[in-house]
Amino acid sequence: xxxxxxxxxxxxxxxxxxxxxxxxxxxxxxxxxxxxxxxxxxxxxxxxxxxxxxxxxxxxxxxxxxxxxxxxxxxxxxxxxxxxxxxxxxxxxxxxxxxxxxxxxxxxxxxxxxxxxxxxxxxxxxxxxxxxxxxxxxxxxxxxxxxxxxxxxxxxxxxxxxxxxxxxxxxxxxxxxxxxxxxxxxxxxxxxxxxxxxxxxxxxxxxxxxxxxxxxxxxxxxxxxxxxxxxxxxxxxxxxxxxxxxxxxxxxxxxxxxxxxxxxxxxxxxxxx
Length: 273
Hints:
Blueprint: H1 3-15, H2 29-38, H3 42-48, E1 102-109, E2 116-119, E3 122-129, E4 139-157, E5 160-178, E6 190-193, E7 198-201, E8 212-215, E9 220-223, E10 235-238, E11 243-246, H4 248-256, E12 260-261, E13 268-269
Antiparallel strand pairs: 1-3, 2-4, 4-5, 6-7, 8-9, 10-11, 12-13
Keywords: Signal
GO cellular component, one term: membrane
InterPro entries: Cystine-knot_cytokine, PDGF/VEGF_dom
């Protein structure tokens, strides 16, 4: 072989992708078990996608819990669980510190289609949780900034393995936001109040009759007293006039004959009577 041919041959070897060896790609032990349980050889994964790898450094920074800061619920025995071992702590009752609104690590499930197995199934992501102490009834902890993280997910559809790219979002900043939104207000009856995070009625209590009061939620006038049973067979409770009145069908019948209805007997009377 001439020197030119040797140089060309070496150049072609240099341009080729280096062979991927299993020892060059570090997989978590759980992932190898996942493949083994699914009956998929690790070598086939490497051949299908030579660029697949799991980085050693996560893009998500989350604090770790030590043995003294184990998260506890009010009850360590969920109603749906059986055989849970509960340790009663002989501590003096105390008032716990408030968990204010901020990003916290939670186990987040990777979105997937039906009948699809994935690795990983869950990942740790920061999510905005916690209390908005001053306005607990009207505000909740909401995300205000987040990072979009590109990750590779291993999927098994039937018995076929695939590598897919997806984007997951890690919350980085939080704030207290109104639970009710301006779009929840009825523009015909309500106006948005940013200070109270609620919808204010356009109408006032003065617009209701003396025997009525304003319903602040529905912004309609309602009777002061509860609905009553009407003893007269031809009468029903009238929510507009807040009393027992003759049925509408009887009133329409009298009106069609150009007669007045007797409010006591619900019978039609002549106009000239």
